[in-house]
Amino acid sequence: MDTDVDVDAGRAARADVTGASVDAANLKLCCAAAYTSDWARLLLGDSFHPGGLALTERLGTLLSLGPGVRVLDVAAGKGTSAIHLARTFGCAVVGVEYGGDAVAAAAQAAEAAGVAHLARFEQGDAERLAAPDGSFDAVICECAFCTFPDKRAAAAELARVLRPGGRVGLSDLTRAGEIPADLRGLLAWIACIADAQPLGEYQRYLTEAGLAVKMVEEHDAALGELVHDIRMKLMGAELLVKLKKLDAPGVNFDEARTMARAAADAVRAKRFGYAIVTAAKPR
Ligand SMILES: C[S@@+](CC[C@H](N)C(=O)[O-])C[C@H]1O[C@@H](n2cnc3c(N)ncnc32)[C@H](O)[C@@H]1O
């Protein structure tokens, strides 16, 4: 199996992340590479966030998406959410994603789903969006804001590209208290854990960017289910490797298993959760 992830670079960067002096560009690259890997697909399926497309649809409903609404999906991954929103609500979605391979896969998927006229994809950085000021009616960002090294810049960008009266919907991993030490490395960063914020902090980033928070909805159970699923799939993959039915060069199952167990414990202890926050740009 091709993991597409530079494991050595990852290990080196991991030490840096733990030492809190990571190179932001490398972090974004590692994250993008991880989410285009076969492993992400094996462990997460096509939708890379807790709650899957049902939660994406919930976000679409909360943002009143519909035909003619211009939507930006920031950190769109392989386009699964953008395509689903276009299909379900008939809105026009632009997906911006750091990883070039993911952008190409998303464009292909939109074509295959027959919604290429509604969903298109661009490579870009959430902290420096190319879109002009006020060019979208709604912006979504699912399970990615917590991975942006400069969250203040990203929040300012979400607000900038919204028209006055436009709405933003974030869904993201939340934490209560400090992150356990074994969940602070690069793998944990990529898994959206290492820099997860308390729920109030997401609201603060949006407010400081000039947006008015409208609604907060907690979906912790969806995170518990995702972590459980990942643990089961990891066990399955490890068994297949032992039976020599799956090739997984460079994959450290001990590390992945330890992290998944620590994540499951932390979710059970309510140290991690998942939430939606919506906000509006004043008219
Ligand atoms: C957990 S995945 C979520 C993908 C998608 N939003 C979903 O929910 O299926 C995180 C995504 O954020 C992307 N990403 C990370 N940093 C980014 C940045 N600065 N700008 C754009 N995309 C970024 C990664 O490449 C990855 O595809």
Architecture blueprint of SSEs:
Elements: H1 7-18, H2 24-36, H3 38-44, H4 52-62, E1 70-74, H5 80-89, E2 92-97, H6 100-112, E3 119-123, E4 136-142, H7 151-161, E5 162-175, H8 186-190, H9 199-208, E6 212-218, H10 220-242, H11 253-268, E7 272-280
Parallel strand pairs: 1-2, 1-4, 2-3, 4-5
Antiparallel strand pairs: 5-7, 6-7
S-adenosylmethionine binds next to α2, α5 and β2.
Plain-language structure description:
With about 280 residues, the protein is of the alpha/beta class. The chain has eleven helices and seven strands. The protein has helices at about 5-20, 25-35, 40-45, 50-60, 80-90, 100-110, 150-160, 185-190, 200-210, 220-240, 255-270, and strands at about 70-75, 90-95, 120-125, 135-140, 160-175, 210-220, 270-280. It has a seven-stranded mixed beta sheet with strand order 3-2-1-4-5-7-6. Helix 6 (about 100-110) links the parallel strand 2 (about 90-95) and strand 3 (about 120-125). It is globular, with a radius of gyration of 18 Å. Residues about 1-20 have low confidence and may be disordered. The structure holds S-adenosylmethionine.
